[in-house]
Design goal:
heterodimer; A: 167 residues; mainly beta; four-stranded antiparallel β-sheet; three-stranded antiparallel β-sheet; 44% strand; B: 635 residues; Collagenase (Catalytic Domain); Neuraminidase; five-stranded antiparallel β-sheet
Chain lengths: 167, 635
């Protein structure tokens, strides 16, 4: 019967394969989404606005391997700081700018920005069990062999951020 | 305040593939267009949209994408072009304050006021996913970030495609320098921590590589190695163009960081996205595609399942579970059963070892094949033509052995019926016209011999029913209106004689329920009860015993959700749902072969069929895990 498939056949022909994305934590059903807009000066990030939107949210990034990877992540967290959803972001706080050319091989390059400032937006699922959204940057550890250093740039409570939402 | 230099006229949906809530929404904002240039702006937008939708893999994902053009006027035409950067010295009053020279000495860095752009997009299209700001200038330039900014110069739309890779899909830069080759002095070796982005890595282990599934066994890993880590690697691609491997030099470092292909749009403009980047884009956009119709699943006996679906070649495919394993073979293979179908097949079993499958051919006629006496008729890949003109998928039910009732919606949107009984098809001259105006597929159930109930969604979004009571169709000359403002296909089940349960998705995406208790509809003829949830597409339902219901839907995160009626109340709560995981691009299908047993199927974003089951009091393979059954399901 299918229920015994995993034990008998997984090793031989991959009977049980985790569908991409099922590594996401078990959690409640989203009731749409919340759009958050942020503004930043240097590493200081502040919330500009928050609103509920009726929208399909992009799929989560697999959670189980992200702990040791560098980069920016938007994490929707519930009780006891449990991560309910996680998405990889590409440098929302931009410390450099990309430069384009139409000459030669049209190579790209980067230049540092002296005073980083700007805005960015996140769309996260609106989960009943969610307490807050954390924007986390995981950077290179100070010493080789140590885990990535997580740095929480901002934490935004999700409850009560959108009083007009009745969903 | 730059917004004083123009005004927002309104928004036009220039690519419309459905509701903004369900699709991936690209918002185009124009800057430096005077009011008299709105026609030019529309034409420029069309050109850029054509480039976007012709670019792989967006070309194959067009059905997931909406494009909204926001018409914004500016006082002046063009953009600032400071002389300090070698520009013309032009100063232009524009709504988003577009200017070249976004950093000292870098004329090509064309930037806008991102906050203003974001506020306008948010106001005009609250469901926006990406913002493209097109600046009315022929000077080459652009920038990335919250918005992708680009000018009208030849090839500048490539900037937007590169920046979409960052902002929408979380892709990393694949180039192996920062300021430039021969300029950097601190970019010799990438730090050892693995980048989170899917298209760069520090891992050289083939077995654990992020994109290992795309690397051919014959391709060496690493594929290239930089002999001098103080410089960019000058060697040409040693592999045939397009080979996926592990090329050293990526993520702003000469060594110890790797990219998947020699060239990629995330490394330099003018190249296609590499295969790994394309895979990521597909993963993100697939959930925005219109729902794939559910798989047809039949069980003729305990420990027996038969699945039917339409493959990517539009032929019908079959897979079965015979009690000891899945057929026709291991490895996710499906049995090809021929045909060229317009839409997915329907199937039913009137008894053990008997299957009847129906599909609509390219001539819109109904076709039939059957499994009896251990073989397929009229042949494994052959079909029997039943005629008719169907605009819907077929629906088939059987009230007893030797009886079939098939329903289709015709080109006139009326419901049509054909049956098999006493060894022959009726009516003799084709199909019986039952009338109505059906905007959905037909959905039928037979809770006892000589009883049929057929449901369709009408033009007003309400559910309608017609039933056969053994002597004739009721109500005479019409349909019973059951109310609702339904947004998808209904699901109907009967757990016993004179009992019907109907489920559908309402205007607020909540799952709705009503039932026939033998004497009346509850909560009323036209009323529905909300069961909560936020559903995409249509629900599925199964009943393994009297007074037992299991209902499923796909949520906005494309996971499958479940709730159940145990005879006394709804679980896990009146409006709560149990999350079963998965990433479904279509409606689920549920089958129960005996009490306390459920088999659930959905089509995943790789278009394969996935399976999970409830037995012995628990979900297998786990609460949120799914068994991959392979296949390539056509939408």
């Amino acid at each position: 019967m299918p229920g015994s498939c995993r034990a008998r056949r997984a090793a031989s022909w991959g009977c049980v394969m985790s569908e991409a994305g099922t590594g996401s934590p078990t959690g409640p059903e989203p009731r749409g989404a919340v759009r958050l807009i942020f503004q930043y000066e240097g590493d200081e990030v502040r919330l500009v606005s928050s609103r509920h939107i009726d929208k399909v949210v992009p799929p989560d990034d697999e959670a189980e391997t992200d702990e040791e990877r560098q980069g920016f992540y938007a994490e929707v967290r519930g009780a006891y700081d449990r991560v309910l959803r996680r998405r990889l972001l590409h440098a929302p706080v931009r410390r450099d700018a990309e430069v384009f050319t139409d000459e030669g091989d049209r190579a790209l390059s980067r230049i540092p920005v002296e005073r980083p400032s700007g805005v960015f937006s996140l769309v996260v699922p609106d989960l009943e069990e969610a307490d807050y959204v954390a924007l986390v940057e995981r950077r290179e550890p100070d010493r080789p062999g140590f885990a990535a250093l997580p740095s929480e740039l901002i934490r935004v409570p999700l409850r009560g951020t959108d009083p007009g939402d009745g969903s | 305040m730059t917004a004083a230099d123009g005004r927002v006229l309104g928004t036009t949906k220039v690519v419309d593939n459905g509701s903004a809530a369900s699709r991936w929404n690209v918002v185009v904002l124009g800057d430096g267009y005077r009011e008299a240039e709105m026609g030019k702006y529309a034409a420029d937008t069309r050109r850029v949209v054509d480039v976007l939708l012709a670019t792989s893999p967006y070309d194959e994902l067009q059905a997931a994408i909406n494009v909204h053009r926001v018409d914004v006027t500016s006082t002046d035409s063009g953009a600032d072009d400071p002389a300090s950067c070698g520009g013309s010295g032009a100063v232009r009053r524009t709504y988003f304050d577009a200017t070249f020279c976004g950093a000292p000495g870098v004329q090509r860095l064309l930037v806008v006021d991102d906050l203003t752009a974001l506020v306008v997009a948010d106001d005009q299209v609250p469901e926006w996913d990406v913002i493209l700001v097109m600046v009315n200038s022929q000077v080459y330039g652009g920038s990335g970030g919250t918005t992708a900014v680009f000018s009208l110069a030849a090839g500048a739309e490539e900037i937007a495609l590169h920046e979409l890779g960052h902002s929408a899909f979380g892709l990393a830069d694949e180039y192996e320098y920062y300021l430039g080759c021969g300029i950097d002095t601190d970019r010799n070796q990438h730090p050892p921590l693995e980048p989170g982005e899917p298209n760069v890595t520090v891992n050289t282990n083939r077995a654990t590589l992020k994109w290992r599934q795309l690397v051919e066994p014959a391709t060496p890993v690493p594929t290239t190695t930089n002999a001098d880590c103080t410089e960019c690697d000058p060697q040409p691609d040693p592999q045939p163009a397009g080979t996926v491997g592990l090329y050293e030099g990526a993520h702003y470092y000469h060594c110890r960081a790797y990219r998947p292909q020699f060239d990629c749009r995330m490394r330099a403009l003018g190249y296609p996205y590499c295969a790994v980047c394309q895979r990521r884009i597909r993963e993100v956009l697939t959930p925005f595609l219109p729902p794939v119709p559910p798989v047809a699943a039949v069980s003729w006996a305990p420990r027996r399942l038969d699945l039917f679906t339409r493959g990517s070649d539009r032929a019908e495919y079959h897979k079965w579970f015979s009690g000891s394993g899945w057929g026709p073979s291991v490895g996710g293979a499906w049995e090809r059963q021929g045909g060229i179908l317009l839409n997915p097949p329907a199937a039913v079993s009137w008894g053990p070892s008997r299957l009847d499958v129906f599909g609509v051919g390219t001539d819109q006629a109904l076709y039939h094949k059957w499994f009896a006496n251990g073989r397929w008729g009229p042949g494994l890949t052959a079909w029997e033509r039943q005629g008719g003109t169907a605009r819907s998928r077929p629906e088939v039910v059987s009230w007893e052995s030797g009886r079939l009732d098939v329903f289709i919606v015709g080109n006139d949107r009326a419901l049509y019926h054909r049956w098999f009984g006493a060894g022959q098809w009726g009516p003799a001259n084709g199909f019986e016209r039952l009338g109505g105006v059906a905007m959905s597929q037909p959905h039928a159930t037979a809770f006892q011999p000589r009883r049929l109930d057929v449901f369709v969604v009408g033009g007003d979004g309400a559910l309608y029913r017609k039933w056969f009571d053994g002597s004739g169709w009721q109500p005479s000359g019409g349909f019973e209106r059951l109310g609702g403002e339904l947004t998808g296909e209904p699901a109907v089940v009967s757990w016993g004689p004179d009992r019907l349960d109907a489920f559908a998705v309402g205007p607020g995406r909540e799952v709705l329920h009503k039932f026939w208790d033998g004497g009346a509809w509850q909560p009323s003829v036209t009323g529905w009860t909300s069961l909560g949830g936020v559903a995409i597409g249509s629900p599925a339902v199964a009943a393994w015993a009297a007074d037992r219901l299991d209902v499923f839907h796909v949520g906005t995160d494309r996971a499958v959700y479940h709730k159940w009626w145990n005879g006394t109340g709804w679980g896990p709560s009146a409006t709560g749902w149990e999350r079963l995981g998965g990433i479904a691009v279509g409606a689920p299908t549920a089958v129960a072969w005996e009490p306390n047993r459920l088999d659930l199927f959905h089509v995943g974003r790789d278009r394969a069929v996935y399976h999970k089951w409830f037995g012995s009091g628990a979900w297998g393979p786990s609460l949120t895990g799914w068994e991959r059954l392979g296949g390539s399901v056509e939408a």
